[in-house]
Design brief:
Oligomer: single chain
Structural class: mainly beta
Strand order of the largest sheet: 14-29-16-18-25
Distance between the termini: 37 Å
Strand content: 25-35%
Number of strands: 29
Helix content: under 10%
């Protein structure tokens, strides 16, 4: 790393300080390249929180390391200063306050970009040496009160757009988040936010703190069978070396309400939430030349999210949504599954019923809304439930009920032949619909939907 050299008794120059700043920037940039690799771009912090009151998000404080140059423009001046130096180096850009960014409109997928550039800021009217009258300073370089910038700052602004903005001179554009906005949304509560590669919402020291595990016990050499290994090193203490390790997995697989308390040592959690599946639609009794159709039930919404700051002293309510009941006629909606106030996944939506019709006929289905991930939770996956399958009638004795929609945890109810009730769906999946043949005086029930799921991965 370069350092400026000065000598006692020599006349100090403005470039002495300017070179010291440039050398420091080069040294830190080289260190960043060693850490992350040449031409890498990473972000730390800059957590994206959707607004519950408007169609916007708030970006928290943080920084970006990205490729740049030492100085794209001259610095200092007025007869001195340093000329521009376009030597490539990793540069740091900082956002020191929360920034609100508007989402352009609903019903589309956008990217949130960090616009990184250096700007000369903090203008001040500086006192200058007056050669004509050394006892009196000048107000500005020409005594005209003109101000000059005193800081070259690496700054970040943010924009949400469908395409990347223009790269500023000697700056950098880094995509931070993928933002999916449902059609008709007026706030960002239902917006799905997914972090892009190279974005670390958790500060790096929390990912790998540099604390040494303490040695305990007598420092004796282990015997061949390893019986004294614990005396050389308390391996349990190694677990403290890096946070982010998996502490425990808690699963909730049956419909109902629970009070969950994280295990000791938990600092954050990754939650996986699956809404309950809907039941398939039944079909009515039929007469001569008539058939009845019911489409398959939809699966529940699915989400995974990382939630920081969840400790072992908290009691968190968990709801696992019920599966829609198998009933004749109308299908039943699946129950919502949730983890505290952070993640809520709606249950699957039943399909549709045709009533008594004559072939040829088909009957469609419906999908669920996107999950709601809020309150500082960082979305990993956010997906609406799938539609149940279409039911078809080719003739009065030929057709099939719609298959239930599958979920991340289970298969949808299988298509059943005519005159048979629907099949049940797996965990979080929809039950299958029905096809009632002619002259069947018995109404058929659709298949039951599967109960939802909540899985908690506890992290130190």
């Amino acid at each position: 790393m370069d350092r400026a050299i000065v000598y006692a008794g020599s006349i100090p120059l403005d470039t002495d300080l300017l070179r010291a700043g440039r050398y420091a920037k080069a040294g830190l940039g080289n260190l960043a390249e060693i850490t992350f690799g040449s031409q890498s771009a990473v972000a730390c912090g800059l957590v994206c929180v959707p607004s519950a009151n408007s169609l916007s998000v708030t970006i928290g404080r943080g920084s970006v390391l990205a490729p740049g140059v030492l100085d794209g423009a001259s610095v200092g001046g007025l007869g001195g200063g340093l000329v521009a130096d376009n030597t490539a180096v990793m540069c740091q850009y900082v956002s020191t306050t929360d920034q609100s960014v508007a989402i352009p409109y609903a019903g589309s997928i956008f990217t949130l970009y960090a616009v990184c550039q250096e700007q000369d800021t903090d203008t001040v009217v500086l006192p200058f040496f007056n050669a004509s009258n050394p006892d009196q300073t000048l107000a500005g370089a020409s005594n005209g009160g003109g101000s000059l910038p005193t800081r070259r700052a690496g700054l970040i602004s943010f924009v949400i757009a469908a395409a990347a903005p223009v790269v500023p001179d000697n700056g950098y554009i880094l995509p931070l988040y993928r933002i999916s906005v449902p059609l008709g949304a007026t706030t960002a509560v239902s917006v799905a936010v997914t972090a892009m590669e190279g974005v670390f919402p958790t500060p790096l020291p929390k990912l790998a703190p540099l604390q040494s595990p303490a040695l305990t016990g007598q420092p004796t050499t282990p015997t061949p069978d390893g019986s004294n290994l614990q005396q050389i090193l308390n391996f349990a203490s190694l677990a403290k070396f890096a946070s982010g390790r998996l502490v425990n997995i808690a699963g909730f697989w049956s419909a109902g309400s629970y009070n969950y308390t994280p295990s000791a040592g938990t600092q954050s959690v990754i939650v996986i939430v699956q809404g309950g599946g809907a039941s398939g639609y039944g079909s009515p009794a039929t007469g001569a030349g008539q058939v009845g159709l019911g489409s398959g039930g939809g699966s529940g919404a699915f989400a995974a999210a990382w939630i920081p700051g969840v400790g072992a002293t908290q009691s968190i309510p968990i709801t696992v949504g019920v599966g829609g009941a198998a009933i004749p006629g109308d299908g039943a909606t699946g129950g919502n599954s949730s983890f505290g106030s952070w993640v809520n996944c709606s249950g699957g939506v039943p399909g549709t019923i045709s009533g008594v019709v004559t072939p040829i006929w088909s009957q469609g289905s419906k999908s669920t809304a996107l999950p709601v991930v809020t309150g500082g939770a960082v979305p990993i996956v956010s997906r609406a439930g799938e539609c149940g399958g279409v039911s078809l009638a080719f003739g009065v004795q030929s057709g099939t009920g719609g298959q239930g929609a599958s979920s991340a945890f289970g298969a949808g109810g299988a298509q059943m032949p005519g005159g048979v009730s629907g099949a049940s769906g797996g965990q979080g999946a929809g039950g299958s619909g029905t096809f009632n043949i002619e002259n069947n005086s018995t109404a058929l029930a659709g298949g039951a939907g599967g109960a939802g799921v909540v899985v908690v991965l506890e992290l130190a």
